[in-house]
Amino acid sequence: MTVSLLEASSGRAVAKAQPQADNAPVRKADGPRKNGGFLRKALIFAFFLPTLAAGVYYGFVAAPRYEAQTQFIVRGIHGNRLAPGLASLMQAVGIGRSSDDSNVVLEYLGSRDAVTQLETALPLREIYGRQEADPLSRFPRPFSSASFERLYWYFGDRVQALEDPDSGIITVKAQAFRAEDAQAIARQLLTQAETLVNVMNARLEADTVSAAETAVADATKTVMEAHDEVTRFRNAETVVDPTQNAVAQLSTIADLSGQVDQVLAQISQNGRLSPANPGVASLKAKADALNAQIAQEQKGLAGPHSAVADKVSSYERLIVLRELADQSLAAATASLQAARADARRQHIYVELISAPNLPDEAMQPERIRAVATVFAVSAAAFAVLWLLSVGVREHGQ
């Protein structure tokens, strides 16, 4: 009885264990099959298809693009980033470069304003929509609108403006489907950069000189008012220069005083020689008349408000005010000249290094490089998918 029970238990244990043993090889066989199918699909979709599509497009479909190039430098006599000795030598001959202004020009060349002005000067949409272009390269691209924003982003793919950090040379590269179109775009961008620099110079000079010009205008107005005051005084007093009149009166008084002295001397002489001489009385009357005339002249020279002295005082005050106004005008004019000279010293210029060329061969797109790039990216994508599949498989086991 006991033996039969053990055998029965052993039989059931073997029966339970048998399905597990039978199922184990099936799980091991399905895993590699599923994993192998996934890798084959990943290899096709992530590696072979993109590389094949890139090879077909760049080898047979992509339209050739011509690239025109121009180089220039924004220079001035300030803002140099050269060695100290070389910078001073360059400044001595009036050559230098401004890094800040170079950055302004560089940012402008990639801005929407540059595209707007370029579209005004050239038929930009027609240039980038040539029949020579393939559908993927032409503007507008498939499934894309022809809005200005799309044109701006398309322009960023076809035009590059780069600055050499060591030399400060700005290089502009413009691509188009015709050589003359590429040259026209590069030439127009160069013209717009020069226009921008001229506007910056004009604005700088206006800001620097405006205050000095205002001071000159105010000083000129003050000078004119001072001269008008002098003219009104002369017309009112009917005299050109009261000081000259005062000098003339003083001269008259001096002459009269001299005559009085002569008469008194004659009276004294006659009194000693012949005291009863009747001519002494006439000489005394003459002396009294001369003294009365002297008193009258002195009264006209200094005394009431209508005297010459008062007129001279008013006239001299006006002359002092006029001279001060003239000096202020001279100082303001000197400041204006100095401000203009300083503004000219701060001017910047676009110095052309190489003019926009007319390419005779299409150098874009770089077909082999583009296909190699797609190949490398596809290989990296396949490697990532393979690592993910290995991780999933290990996690499942």
The main pleated sheet reads as:
4 strands, antiparallel
Structural class: alpha+beta
Portion of residues within helices: over 70%
Walk across the major sheet and give the strand order.
2-3-1-4
Report Rg: 52 Å
Number of discrete helical segments: 11
Estimate the strand proportion. Answer: 5-15%
Round the mean pLDDT to the nearest integer and report it. Answer: 74
- Shape call: rod-shaped
Termini distance? 44 Å
What oligomerization state is this entry in?
single chain
Number of domains: 2
Q: Work out the number of β strands.
A: 4
What low-confidence regions span 5 or more consecutive residues with pLDDT below 50?
1-31, 79-97
Q: What are the SSEs and their pairings?
A:
Layout (H helix, E strand, L loop, with lengths): L1 H60 L4 E10 L8 H9 L6 H11 L2 H10 L2 H5 L19 H11 E5 L6 E7 L2 H59 L4 H32 L5 H23 L6 H38 L3 E6 L12 H30 L1
Antiparallel strand pairs: 1-3, 1-4, 2-3
Describe the structure in your own words.
The protein is an alpha+beta fold and 397 residues long. The protein has two domains: 64-210 and 347-396; 211-345. It has eleven helices and four strands, in the order H-E-H-H-H-H-H-E-E-H-H-H-H-E-H. It has helices spanning 2-61, 84-92, 99-109, 112-121, 124-128, 148-158, 179-237, 242-273, 279-301, 308-345, 367-396, and strands at 66-75, 159-163, 170-176, 349-354. A four-stranded antiparallel β-sheet has the order 2-3-1-4. Strand 2 (159-163) and strand 3 form a beta hairpin. The longest helix has 60 residues, at 2-61. It is rod-shaped. The protein starts with a helix and ends with a helix. Residues 1-31 and 79-97 have low confidence and may be disordered.
